[in-house]
Design brief:
- By secondary structure, this protein is an alpha+beta fold.
- The chain contains 6 helices and 2 strands.
- A two-stranded antiparallel ribbon has the order 1-2.
- β1 and β2 form a beta hairpin.
- The two termini are 27 Å apart.
- The relative contact order is 0.19.
């Protein structure tokens, strides 16, 4: 991950990362696209997706069990009905984006929390703090 960020800072190129690694998706990109059922469920700035209440996006990027995605890709009606009364766990804090090793921000890199402030979104408590670890949802 750090190599991709460093190369991006040096050559100012666009990188397309395809991953199922949630930590990579939460910390490396400027923008995230999430595919679900062969369609683009959501695309936009990292902070937009990490603070999203869209069920598929929320479940996947926050490693939560409750939501429309099941072990066989899609949950059946009985599974969804059983979860309907469950309260969703709070969104985990949004981590800081990886920075280039030399500490100089990339041209496309935004200040932590900038998207949230510009769009009136209150990030989850503890967002954008140093040394965060992701806790998976129940």
């Amino acid at each position: 991950n750090q190599l991709i960020v460093d190369l991006n800072a040096q050559i100012d190129a666009t990188f397309l990362i395809v991953t199922h690694d949630i930590n990579t998706a939460r910390t490396v990109p400027d923008n995230i696209g999430l595919l679900y059922h062969k369609h683009l469920a959501m695309f936009g700035p990292r902070e937009m997706l990490l603070s999203s209440e869209e069920p598929v996006v929320r479940q996947f990027l926050n490693a939560q069990r409750v939501g429309p995605i099941g072990m066989s890709e899609e949950k059946d009606a009985d599974e969804l009905a059983a979860e309907a009364d469950q309260e969703l766990p709070p969104l985990p804090p949004i981590p800081l984006q990886l920075e280039p090793s030399n500490g100089i921000p990339r041209r496309s890199q935004r200040e932590p929390g900038a998207w949230c402030r510009e769009h009136g979104v209150t990030p989850p408590p503890g967002s954008f703090e140093e040394n965060m670890t992701m806790t998976t949802g129940a």
